[in-house]
Structure formats: C-alpha cells, structure tokens
Amino acid sequence: ALNESWLTGGAQGIGGIRPLFAGLAAPWSDVAFLALAALCLALIYGGYARIISSRFGRALKVMREEPSLAVCFGYDPVSLKTRASVAAALPAALAGALLTYYISYVGPDVMVSSETFALWTIVMVGGLGSNLGVLLGALLVQSVYSFAPFLKDWLGVSSDLAGSARLGLVGLMLLACLLWRPRGLLPERLETRS
C-alpha cells in the first residue's frame, strides 16, 4: 500500500471518501448505515452457521482437533486451510469496506497492532469456536474501548492515562477470562452422540 501511492495514497492514505448514504438527511444516513451493517452482520452470521453445520465445517473441526485424523478421512489439509482462509477473508473485506465508508478514510495507519490485539481478545473472551461468543466478545471489548476515554471525566485523570487504560482494561479482561474461563464466556458446544 505504501509503494503504490498512485493507487492507495501511500502513507497518507485516501481521505474524503463520500459516505454511502450521503444523500439522506443527517440522522437518516446514520440509521441507513446501521441497518446496512446489521444486515451484513446477519448475513455473515447465518452464512457461518451454515458453514459450521455443513460437511466442510465438520472437516474444519476435525482438522483443528486432529489434523492426522482429517488426512485419514481423505481431507486435503492445504485445501481446507485455503478455503477456511477465504471464508474468513470475505467478511473481513466487507467489514473493511464498511469501516472505510464509516470513517471516510482508508490508509495503512487505520489497522494498528492494538486492533489485532483487540480482535484476538474478542475471540478469546467470547469463546473459541462459537459465533455467538464472538458477538458477545465484540460487544464487551468494544464497550470497554468506547467507554475508557470517559475515564478522564469520571476519575479526573489525564487523556494519556485514559487512552492507556483502554488497552489495560482489555488486557485485564483477557487475563481474567484466561484464568477463570479459558474456553471463553460462550464456548463452542460439543455435540455428544449416544
């Protein structure tokens, strides 16, 4: 992205991107964007639910738990991992596109290492292998991210300390979850057959 500045804007990125619903009046453009984001979330959630219950989803679970067993069943590990990466990349690309229109900017400094930390924390706090758990984790971690800046007003601390408290609180949430709920708050339900 940095080298192809003619396409991506280089280190400065591309700003001033017109919002998706710019033609609507002020509150309705936000409502329309929220509805679009909710629709995308519902479609992705439903799509992943179908994938998990499909033969491909079961093959991924076997690959995750016992890779050698998956090979014995005739699954190609490289093919499974490639298809899983594509299944994960499509919603990530859609989320990135929505974020770009939401903040009207795209550049290399949008996704920093703290965002990666937050994403892994969302999955680990919510529950590994659980779609509903990931939604819960996203709600909890984003709540901490959103409310941490208000610490400066509530507790009378500096803005720098409130900004640092954001990552610290998320780290404490992750640590507490790892100590007391290592599989997450809503872990994957294991099917038992009798």
UniProtKB/TrEMBL annotation:
- Quick check: keyword Transmembrane helix in the entry? yes
Residue ranges crossing the lipid bilayer per the database entry: 31-51, 86-105, 117-141
What is the top-level taxon of the source organism?
Answer: Bacteria
Q: Tell me which stretches of the chain form a coiled coil.
A: none
Where is this chain's protein located in or outside the cell? Cell membrane
The GO terms this record gives for MF are: branched-chain amino acid transmembrane transporter activity
Stated membrane topology is: Multi-pass membrane protein
Keyword list (alphabetical) reads: Cell membrane, Membrane, Transmembrane, Transmembrane helix
Instruction: Tell me which GO cellular component terms the UniProt record holds.
Output: plasma membrane
Q: Which PANTHER family match?
A: HIGH-AFFINITY BRANCHED-CHAIN AMINO ACID TRANSPORT PROTEIN BRAE, HIGH-AFFINITY BRANCHED-CHAIN AMINO ACID TRANSPORT SYSTEM PERMEASE
Q: What is this protein called?
A: ABC transporter permease
